[in-house]
Amino acid sequence: MRTAVLGGGIAGLTAAYRLAKRGVDVTLFEATDKLGGLGGWFDYDGHRLDKWYHVLLDSDDHLLGLLGELNLRERIDWSETTMGFIVGNKHYPFNTAVDLLKFGALNPIDRVRTGMAALYITKLLKNGKPLDEEPACKWLVRVFGRRVYEAIWEPLLIAKFGDMRDRIPAYWVWNTLNREKNGSQEVKGYVRGGNAVIVDRLVEEIEKAGGRIRLSTPVTSIASDADGATLDVADAPVRFDNVISTLPFSRMCKIADKALLEKIPQSSIDYQGVVNVMLMTRNRLSKHYWTAVVRSDLPFQGIVETTHVVRPDSIGNRHLLYLMNYCRPDSDLYKRGDALQVQDAIEGLGRLYPDFREDSVTDAYVFRAPYVEPVWPCGYLAQRPAPRVADTHVFLATTAQAYPMVTSWNTSIKLADDAVAAITTMDASQSSQHVVPADRAIDPTTTSGATAL
Ligand SMILES: Cc1cc2nc3c(=O)[nH]c(=O)nc-3n(C[C@H](O)[C@H](O)[C@H](O)COP(=O)(O)OP(=O)(O)OC[C@H]3O[C@@H](n4cnc5c(N)ncnc54)[C@H](O)[C@@H]3O)c2cc1C
Fold first, then answer.
1. 159, 182, 205: which is the final residue of a domain?
2. Longest alpha-carbon distance in the chain
3. How many domains does the chain have?
4. Is the Cα torsion angle 331, 333, 334, 336 positive or negative in sign?
5. Does the Cβ of 55 fall within 6 Å of ligand 1?
6. Measured from the CA of 32, which atom of ligand 1 is nearest?
7. pLDDT digits (tens, 9 = 90+) for 90-100
8. What digits encode the pLDDT tens for the residues 304-315?
9. Which of 65, 146, 210, 367 has the maximum number of C-beta atoms within 10 A of its C-beta?
10. Looking at the structure, do residues 239 and 103 belong to the same domain, yes or no?
11. How far is the CA of 357 from the centre of ligand 1 (A)?
């Protein structure tokens, strides 16, 4: 069986690894000259640094399982982390019940209501599935009250989904709130050396098991038929028995032929992109890993200081600040030039943090990604694509199937596992269809029977 895997992010690498370990003849095609996808990195002075901040959680079972198989669990550094809020340029820690009681952005009654609502969502409401049909904007008003919604939740939803925020189902918010904090203290992990180390190990294992990885090889079309699929690769058709696509869904829909496209449910889903300004500084900025910036006139929606988890002494004693802006890939913000993005970021930090000094910034980078966060519509459970495109040999492990889980390495690994399991199920059912019925059982003593087998 020849299987193609499209995309060299964590989903594609996991799928190729699993298949190669099972003895499948697998080839992975990656459009760019680097693996890692959204978990990619760049070289800085001998260090490999994440382009987009990445950490893992102690609840990331699929990722932790994979790291165990790759003998990388010993390399995880765990750190206790905290978050803060900046509301209208004022700073608040936001981690404990005491923080909430002192949270000056809300009046005392709303603080108590927020605490009770949070307890209800994380402790009492065990099943969020019925919220799939309900818009988060309505549900959050019901649970937290309008004032809290407008002060906190709406800006957070805008930060992630912009003007498409009203589409998001409450189920996604419920799931996100229940994802973090396996215990009561927030903990985040980082594999020493970053995602690059995980990718290196996967590549090693794939190649050791006979799999092939082809970089700088975009797949430009995919046509499926009763026996397999044909890909256009470097202007030539290549035939495979099975194909797993891990491409962002809209990319996949662009390269699928008409017949295949008709079989893919919900073949258009919007994506938010992201622009990250990454600043490397000599000094620590904040005591928080993540600071949400809401209701401010600042040119970013949040600040992630990953060097609360990544050890500064492992990256040349620098501190890493990521200032993020989720936005549509066709927006002016997304297209705004790098120099202006950096200038806005530095000016904004100067206004927020009196101790921040521009001359502590040693390097600045801007990274953009167009397809990051699928914008889920209400009722998506019924529309979410299955791992197998019905009646085809094409399988999907794309971020558009993550719902209601958040898009993350953990989720992509699960999606890759689901797609590989669907291939196995299909192969098993096809081989059982070929089992010779008992009444035509072959007499093992006759050679003609052996030939028939
Ligand atoms: C700012 C930011 C912060 C994040 N923080 C975290 C975090 O802290 N923890 C966490 O776990 N996750 C985090 N994530 C999410 C995580 O990075 C993604 O969910 C995950 O990497 C998606 O992996 P994937 O393999 O499914 O898709 P992708 O990484 O998107 O991989 C798809 C691959 O397909 C390739 N491709 C596209 N078109 C073609 C083609 N035609 N032919 C061949 N190849 C093609 C692309 O080049 C890409 O390499 C973050 C993401 C962002 C952007």
1. 182
2. 90
3. 3
4. positive
5. yes
6. 47
7. 999 999 999 99
8. 999 999 999 999
9. 367
10. no
11. 33
